[in-house]
Amino acid sequence: MDSLKRGRGRPKTCVDAPTDTKAVLLRAGLEWLTATGFNQSSLDSILRSVQVPKGSFYHHFDNKEDFGLQVLKEYRQYFENKLDRSLADDSVAPLQRLNNFMTDASASMARYDYNRGCLIGNLELEVTKLPTAFRQAIMDTYASWQNKVAACLREAQTSGEISADKECKYLAEVFWIGWEGAVSRARLLSSDLPLRQFCQFFLEQLQN
Q1: Tens of pLDDT, residues 107-150
Q2: I want to staple 34 with a disulfide (CB 3.0 to 4.6 A). Which of 13, 116, 165, 168 is the partner?
Q3: Domain range for 163
Q4: Residue 165 covered by a domain
Q5: What is the pTM of this model?
């Protein structure tokens, strides 16, 4: 497999963001929550960063919990589009698609100097201190992402890249457990080394 290379990153910052208030707030929430998590992100700080008054915020969101869940939903949609660009690209072999996704995600982290991680991974780490609705939303998101990886792995079986006795659903679950751990370690070290190590290890295990 090719080594990790710089690829597409996160959506552009607010300079090119849509002008409607809700979209601006969701984008700001994405930036803050991927950097500092839900509990450490002050609603006042988020609103000041985009110069939106509280009255406008409460026109679109019931409270901070509602805001956080809508940011999570927005991130899920964004990230699933990102996954599909790589994993559904039938112009390349299935395992190369998985490598391409990891390459793209690694480049995105590097672009932000490892100050931002995966929103879902961040929320998972603080789930015991979050409103209960977050737990199900996080689990549903992981289930969706795991299904996409499992589908890619089943294509790899069909093409003969991996053996038919591999349990793709299980491997997809393991992938996300390991990948989120690698993302956290990359932030700790401010380096893509953990991401490259996980990429190499996982792809090698698939082909053993």
Answers
A1: 999 999 998 889 999 999 999 999 999 999 999 999 999 999 99
A2: 116
A3: 14-206
A4: yes
A5: 0.86
